[in-house]
Automatic annotation (TrEMBL):
SMART domains: IG (SM00409), IGc2 (SM00408). This is Ig-like domain-containing protein. GO terms for molecular function: cell adhesion molecule binding. The lineage of its organism: Eukaryota, Metazoa, Ecdysozoa, Nematoda, Chromadorea. Residues 130-219 form the Ig-like domain. GO terms for cellular component: cell-cell junction; plasma membrane. Its main location: membrane. SUPFAM superfamilies: Immunoglobulin. It comes from Caenorhabditis remanei (Caenorhabditis vulgaris). Keywords: Disulfide bond, Glycoprotein, Immunoglobulin domain, Membrane, Signal, Transmembrane, Transmembrane helix.
Length: 300
């Protein structure tokens, strides 16, 4: 799996939101792409000692003059989120990713305003290998198999719709394929996959649908300047069980019954002990009273 951060410093052509005469005056520079590396296999699988990830930068010049931007920003294309650029002493506009995660990856647009109010724009890319997006309420475990994680079992009652999650993210957008019991799964008929939600749905499930399901997400991008594209992969395995997930009720019922019986025994023992104590005290009082009423032989 990819480690650290690699920055591809490439000159790229930007265009000017103005007339052609103005456009010919400017030359734009920047690093076309960088690689973000935050997680290993899933989003809560983070190395606290990971290296600080990279940045994107862009710059505008006219002849030998490097303009200091009067204003600059970066926009992430997929969600239109805007990021204010840091203007460096070298007159470059920067977007620093820090220790960002895969969710920050994607296609960006750099926008720089120069002194004559022209807006110079250009597209840039922040790559990330595929990772499974999860949270603390959905724990995942690393498998002994390479690039594989396992999730908890998914339960579905007969004749209902089973939903198996596979939220794999990254940039370029990973291509996801499915397997059942290590055989390719056909996405047709009762079986469908929603790429937006990352959920595999199986309608009207039956016993034959039970098994081990695995989704695999892959993407490709170059790591080195002018280097070939490399492929990256992550796999998520989950078991589908047909039947209600009531297995936890039996041990809970046993625990509750045991506690009730224990309470009854303790309560009964305490009542018996109190009854015996009361009976003993009554007998003592009767003996004492009897002794006080016995007349003396010489009394009148």
């Amino acid at each position: 799996m990819l480690r650290g951060t690699t920055i591809l410093a490439v000159l790229f052509a930007l265009y000017v939101q103005n007339d052609a005469a103005t456009s010919s005056r400017y030359t734009a520079m920047g690093n076309l792409q960088t690689v973000i590396h935050g997680e290993e296999l899933f989003s809560t699988d983070i190395d606290p000692d990971r290296q600080v990830t990279g940045f994107l930068w862009c710059q505008v010049r006219e002849g030998t003059i490097h303009y200091k931007p009067t204003w600059a920003r970066f926009i992430r294309i997929r969600d239109k989120k805007e990021f204010a650029a840091d203007i460096g002493q070298d007159n470059k506009a920067y977007l620093h990713f820090g220790k960002s995660k895969a969710e920050a990856s994607g296609k960006y647009r750099c926008e720089v305003k120069v002194p004559d109010n022209s807006i110079i724009t250009g597209n840039m890319f922040a790559y990330s290998h595929p990772v499974v997006k999860n949270n603390e309420s959905w724990p995942l475990k690393k498998s002994d198999e390479p690039f594989t994680v396992t999730g908890s079992a998914v339960y579905a009652s007969p004749e209902t719709t089973a939903r198996i999650p596979c939220p794999i993210i990254g940039y370029p957008e990973p291509n996801v394929i499915w397997f059942k019991n290590d055989f390719p799964l056909e996405i047709e008929g009762r079986v469908s996959f929603d790429k937006t939600s990352g959920v595999l749905s199986i309608e009207k499930v039956e016993e034959a649908d039970a098994g081990i399901y695995r989704c695999e997400g892959t993407n490709q991008f170059p790591v080195l300047i002018d280097g070939p594209e490399q492929e990256f992969i992550v796999k998520l395995k989950q078991e589908l069980k047909i039947g209600d997930n009531y297995g936890w009720l039996l041990p809970l019922a046993i625990i509750l019954i045991t506690l009730i019986l224990l309470f009854i025994i303790i309560f009964t023992c305490q009542r018996c002990a109190k009854y015996k104590a009361d009976q003993y005290n009554v007998a003592e009082r009767e003996r004492a009273l009897h002794n006080d009423q016995v007349p003396l032989k010489n009394s009148v």
